[in-house]
Amino acid sequence: MVSFNEFSTVPSLLRNVVENIHKPEETFLIHKKNTDWEEISFATTLVNADAVSAFFLEKGITKGDRLGLMIENSPEYVYYDQGIQQIGAINVSIYPTLSEQEVAYIINDSGIKSLLIGNPFLMRKVLKVAGNCQELRYIIPTFKDYEKIAIPDDIKAEIINYDTVLAKTVSNEERQAIEARRAGLMPQDVSSLIYTSGTTGTPKGVMLTHYNFVENVKVCLEQIPVINEHETFLSFLPLSHVFERTATYHVCCAQGCKIAFAQSLELLAKNMGEVRPTVMNCVPRLLERIHDKAIKSGTAAGGLKAKIFTWALETGKKYRQAKEAGKSAGLVLSAQKAVAEKLVFSKIKEKTGGRLKFMISGGAALPKNVGEFFGDLGIKILEGFGLTETSPVMAVTEYHRQVYGTVGRVIPGIEVGIQDVETKQMINIQTHDTFNENFECAEGEIIVRGHCVMKGYFNKPAETAEAIDKDKWFHTGDIGRFYKGNLQITDRLKNMIVNAYGKNVYPTPVENIYLKSPKIDQLFLIGDKREYITAIIIPNKETLQETFNLKESFFQEPSDFIDNQEIIDWMEKDIKKISNELAKFERIKNFKIKRNPFSIDEGEITPTLKVKRRVVEKKYAEAINAMYSEGVEAD
Question: SUPFAM superfamilies annotated for this entry (predicted)?
Fold first, then answer.
């Protein structure tokens, strides 16, 4: 069983598993090697971690030094992380999708001394800036034939292949030194620097301690006690992000679960069928795509098949609602549910591998209708909420109590407050112990105090003081309230649109209403200080192609926006229909259809897929202004 105590640190979690939960030779990591899935034991993981530790001890790395990783999810990530953490070094994971300038900033701001690199593309990116990174001593590629990459003359860092590091024989003296370092780690020591996405300025290095991480894992396992040592997690969200780091990697290190690494997002569906995971962490966009494809597949053929699919969903909905109300489903509805399961639901579940107990959705708000859809199928989606600065979890859905459209109950050991945005008066404070399933309150900014709050921003005392007030409350910048005892997120404070008439519009819930349309893949709302709301719409590419018989060349045309009136009229039908669900001042009065999705490479979205509002509004200012000069009348 998991053993947490006041001296627990990130490296101690995995050691506890080997001592008390699993035998060393049992499987911990699973990854695709060539055409086969390879299993890696706890023992092999720890041997490789010790080799990494010994290598860096030999190189003079001391406690508190920052060592970087720029690599996709893989066993190599785990060996390096465990190896550096147990000697007191700090993990600085860099998103592989960041630009050269952002990579250079993080390397220099954190003072990274070594950087693990996962593929030739990333190495070329690093080599373009490494000459200006004075603290960088070692570049460690994990791939073969790295010697074929041209090395610029200004590179002073030594390039050492990862295989050489892992092949190091650990002497008895080095082993004793590793054990001494590991024993000397304190919970308050910094475990990792995770740089914020930077939607509103320069990224900041969030200092998260061993205590932050370990306590977050501990209370999440208390809140979701159904996670056991026999689970298989499929990991595809980046370990450079705090959500996947904590909710998959650290949870598995603590509980002894297996971690299978997906090959890529494109191969995720295939990997799910091969690995057959029992738990997955995901983001709303993935669930929305599964929802859209399932609906389309179930109804596209029409006729009897579509009728059966629609009947099954309605049956699943009635069954779910009865169970959630604490009522008996009755013999007739239970029998109908069994038929729906056999004819429809089982086929959808089989595509996930057929063993999925639940998925945890985080990183953004999950549209209520999408959560309900999975609930109707009998696939449980637990929602969680938090930020990098909160380790990350502040609230998560309880396994036995689902309230769709909320992110669950406050985790044990912290306080979550709702503060009036204008007056700064506290509206309400809730803890895990004050939970009341009938409680509701007005909305305001969500603030938090307790074990999940970061140590601060690295080398940025002024920004730290701005984020954490004198009473130790961390201000999240998110707007929300308590609904049926659970935390409900409304939007980001900085996203709030105030129209020309002083009406407040929170974009996220409005966008989620419009995303019910199968024609829409993404939607970006505009209207701050304007008379009415407009939007940039990203169409569902597959639906658009099939409806208008479009070739791939259509999406490669130079113009950003689609001007085909037939397509515009086609989209407008859904916009007008869905608008009836909204208040008049929230309705979209004009829109532009963007030919291609917002891009990380273009700097339009962050690595966690959040749209950079300022960047998008500036980049497409001409198109946006045109929507307000086309004679549309506000209500």
Answer: Acetyl-CoA synthetase-like (SSF56801)
Q: How many CB atoms lie within 10 A of CB 534?
A: 22
472 and 533 part of one domain: no
> Position of tokens 């809730």?
430
**Quick one: how far is CA 519 from the chain centroid?**
25
The 10 Å CB-count burial string (b at 16+, else e) for 97-112 is ebeeebbbbbbebbbb
CB-facing half-sphere around the CA of 427: CA atoms within 13 A: 21
Q: What is the 3-state secondary structure (H, E, C) of 365-378?
A: CCCHHHHHHHHHHC
As given in the structure block, the two tokens for residue 600 are 């990380």
Number of other residues whose CB lies within 10 A of the CB of residue 325? 8
348-386 b/e (C-beta count within 10 Å ≥ 16 → b): bbeebbeebebbbbbbbbbbbebbbbbbbbbbbbbbbbb
Looking at the structure, tell me whether residues 475 and 519 fall in a common domain. Answer: no
Q: In whole angstroms, what separates CA 184 from the centre of its chain?
A: 32
Judge if 361 and 427 occupy the same domain. Answer: yes
pLDDT tens for each residue of 253-293: 999 999 999 999 889 999 999 999 999 999 888 898 889 88
DSSP string, 150-165: PPPTT--SEE--HHHH
- Is the Cα torsion angle 261, 267, 271, 272 positive or negative in sign? positive
Q: For residue range 116-159, what is the model confidence (pLDDT) as tens digits?
A: 999 999 999 999 999 999 999 999 999 999 999 999 999 999 99
Residue 488 and residue 608 in one domain: no
Q: How many CB atoms lie within 10 A of CB 258?
A: 22
Prediction pTM value:
0.86
44 shares a domain with 30 = yes
Does residue 561 sit in helix, strand or coil?
strand
What type of residue sits at position 499? N
CB 467 within 8 A of CB 511: no
